[in-house]
Specification:
4 strands
């Protein structure tokens, strides 16, 4: 399982990104920052939560697509209006709700203060 990149900001003002477990060297002052200082259980817990949120969105989309396929095969051409209503539901109601939920969860994520090597 690959994790998200971690953004680090050096005291000199530079910032960069590195994967968990990697070292990042500030290009300006050449300090080394070790991402292993972040507790592994917290980091991977966050990655699991973010993956679960993505899977929820994909699961709902697949369920809607499967139901739409069955209805399209059973009903035929009259299903076009219902399909447009389902797509409107997806883009107008579900995805904004899902994005708000993800953003709220991201705002509550912890931040870590790393010490340079």
């Amino acid at each position: 399982m690959r994790g998200a990149l971690i953004t680090m900001r050096c005291g000199c003002g530079e910032s960069g990104k590195a994967s968990y477990g990697e070292l990042w060297e500030c290009p300006e002052c050449h300090r080394l920052w070790d991402t292993k200082q972040i507790p592994a259980e917290q980091y991977w817990g966050i990655m699991r939560d973010m993956r679960r949120l993505r899977l929820v969105a994909m699961g709902v989309a697949l369920a809607i697509a499967a139901a739409g396929l069955v209805l399209a095969l059973l009903v035929g051409g009259q299903f076009v209006i219902v399909a447009m209503m389902v797509v409107a539901f997806w883009f107008i109601w579900f995805m904004p709700y899902w994005r708000r939920r993800v953003r709220a969860q991201v705002r509550q994520l912890p931040t870590w203060r790393l010490d340079p090597k």
